[in-house]
Specification:
Helix content: 10-25%
Structural class: alpha+beta
Bound molecules: zinc ion
Strand order of the largest sheet: 1-2
Number of helices: 3
Radius of gyration: 17 Å
Order of helices and strands: HEEEEHHEE
Largest sheet: 2 strands, antiparallel
Number of strands: 6
Length: 74
C-alpha cells in the first residue's frame, strides 16, 4: 500500500487568505465584501450582477442584507 504519500500531497495545502464568493462558490484572492454582514462576491459576479446591485457604479447593494457598500474603499 502506497497511498500514504498520495494522501499527504492532497488536502494539506495551506490556503492563503482566499475569500469564497457567495455567488459562484469559488475562492479568490480578492472579493468585494459587505461591510455590514460579511457577504462576499467576486469581481466576475459583481460585473454580471451590476445591473441589479448598483445603480450608479459607485455603490453596490448587498443582496443579503440590502445595505449599500462603496466601490474602491477597500
Ligand atoms: Zn463569484
Ligand atoms: Zn450585507
Amino acid at each position: 500500500m502506497n497511498s500514504e504519500a498520495t494522501r499527504r500531497t492532497f488536502g494539506r495545502r495551506r490556503r492563503r487568505s482566499l475569500t469564497e464568493c457567495h455567488c459562484c462558490r469559488q475562492r479568490f484572492p480578492f472579493c468585494w465584501q459587505c461591510r455590514h454582514c460579511g457577504f462576499s462576491i467576486c469581481q466576475d459576479c459583481i460585473q454580471e450582477n451590476l445591473w441589479g446591485m448598483s445603480c450608479n457604479g459607485i455603490t453596490w447593494q448587498c443582496p443579503d442584507c440590502g445595505e449599500q457598500n462603496g466601490f474602491g474603499n477597500q
